[in-house]
Amino acid sequence: MPIKLQIKSIAEREAVYLAWTSGDLDRRILRVRSNPDYGFKVKDKEQRDLPIPDDLLGFCIVIPNEY
Questions:
Q1: What is the tens place of the pLDDT at every residue in 20-39?
Q2: How far apart are CA 26 and CA 10, in angstroms?
Q3: Cα separation of 46 and 63, whole Å?
Q4: Longest C-alpha distance within the chain, in Å?
Q5: pLDDT higher than threshold 60 for residue 1
Q6: Cα–Cα distance measured from residue 38 to residue 53, given in angstroms and rounded to the nearest whole number
């Protein structure tokens, strides 16, 4: 199911390489990091943490429990 991320400060290419391990649901943080397993590096080494919006947080909690 495609998801449109409504997160400011994240590029589409960065969003494509997010994994479940990129998020800390308890702290409500999304980590934007390089992913060498897939040959992806963040632009200009701009690794950062972003807050997870409420609507995305709810989705992240529901999906793993369904599969």
A1: 788 888 899 989 988 888 88
A2: 20
A3: 28
A4: 37
A5: no
A6: 26
